[in-house]
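Worked example 2:
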Amino acid sequence: MIAGPAFSPSYPQLPQASGPAPTDSLERRGSASNPQQQDLAQLRVLAELKARDREVRAHEQAHQSVGGQYASAPSYTYQRGPDGVQYAVGGEVQIDISPVSGHPQATIDKMRTVRAAALAPAEPSGQDRTVAAEAMQLMLQAQQALARQRSASTEAGSSADSSQESEPARSYRLINELSDSGLEDLPSSFQVVA
């Protein structure tokens, strides 16, 4: 199960359909004073429901596709239209925003994905922006942890380096030790030329 907040944009409420459209022309005549107005109202509601369904599905699919392994499949809330069909009028995608324990770089990479998923739809909701801000905060914390790790390893490396002598320093020290040991009195094959 994926933990974390859900992306759930707030969609304006559509008028509730009164049920399936009457199929018999006699039923229609008896149910309203002007059947033409009722048909037009149902067509408007149906058009709004279809548009909302497309918008909701595109919005949630954007979250899921960008969120990848950290995002769940979208879940939807439905409303029955005057034609008897269920239309998606709301939805959410669960996303895992927990940091990767002990791995700041992995957390940074994960939070980049989470933030991109939160802001993936054309019109991110307030909840989407909240999730993106949380991901950004966790990413900044992970960057600070990574910097501390790198600083600690650099300090440990520099103290280890001071105990180990570099090759030029060792050569210089050995040459100085040779000159201090009285070897300058030994015959040399080198001749000083003036």
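Residues 6-152 form one domain. The chain is about 55% helix and 10% strand.
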